[in-house]
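Page 42, continued from yesterday. The earlier attempt failed because a stray header line got pasted into the input along with the sequence. Redoing it now with the clean sequence only.
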Amino acid sequence: MAEELTAEIQSAREEALATLSDVVEQARYKSLGDGRIRSPEKEKIRLKYLRVIVSAQAERRKLLADRDLDELAEKVEQLQEEHNT
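This time it went through. Structure tokens are written below.
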């Protein structure tokens, strides 16, 4: 049961990371790349895309940190089991 939940959480994180990567790439394309909004009137839209990048990257870092913490917890648990045997 715990392994199923862990796998489900990991799968959800991986999906979220992939989605956030897509968001960042799209926002980067629209704000900095060939799809850039160049009109001065639309500069506000460009800035919004840049904010999306910053926000998505912050969420991505949180998900990666959570994943790292889970991996460390698993390693600690394994070490404790090895120590108890």
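Notes: Helices lie at 2-32, 43-84.
Reminder to self: strip header lines before submitting.
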